Amino acid sequence: MGGLTHESLVEYLIEEAYEVVDSIEAGAVDDELRGELGDVLLQVVLHARLAEERGSFDFAAVARGINDKMIRRNRHVFKADGSLQDSFPSSVEEIIVKWDAAKRAEKPERKDPFEGIPPHLPALAAAQKSLDRAARAGLDVDAGLSVDAQGALAGVGLAAVPASEEALGELLLAVVAGAREQGLDAERALRAAVRSFQNTQAPPS
């Protein structure tokens, strides 16, 4: 595959993934969604082919790896041989606890709850994932917020946060618009706040 590299394909992998998101959120018909998923799968195939050409792994190894991972991390669903368990957890909360326990067992040396969050996630996604990770690790999320963030939250109160995603989107858009008027970069500002939150909550090294 002359000329192609993992690095040169990265932008296409990201682009195709976002096209799947766009299709889903636009209520795409199945044929369109199937096509978009195929485009993402092609990117996986290309990366696996590049790895195969250098003697590392192939597409079949990728498939086996994710199959093994799903069985290993979902012992509440699968037995060790891949067959289904006789009974399943009764709540989502119980499933999350079992999933987290399986992940911790894989990497017991990992103490930082934020390790593994992709550094290039958009700031909003990184913020949500960081807050989720902190809460699931039993950390005091509110205490991890900066003084300014705590003050802002106290000022508006949780009741002021819109109850619908549509209204929340409008509020966030308004915040970005206000930031733009003041010459501030909302994405960079939130990314910095997320880093600060992670550093505050992460255990000392």
UniProtKB/TrEMBL annotation:
> Which superkingdom?
Bacteria
Q: Where is the NTP pyrophosphohydrolase MazG-like domain?
A: 5-78
Q: Which GO terms describe its biological process?
A: dATP catabolic process; dGTP catabolic process; dTTP catabolic process; dUTP catabolic process; TTP catabolic process; UTP catabolic process
- SUPFAM superfamilies to which the protein is assigned, alphabetical: all-alpha NTP pyrophosphatases (SSF101386)
**Molecular-function annotations in GO:** nucleoside triphosphate diphosphatase activity
- Family matches, as InterPro entries: MazG-like_dom, NTP-PPase_MazG-like_N, NTP_PyrPHydrolase_MazG
Cross-referenced PANTHER family: NUCLEOSIDE TRIPHOSPHATE PYROPHOSPHOHYDROLASE
The name this protein carries in UniProt is NTP pyrophosphohydrolase MazG-like domain-containing protein
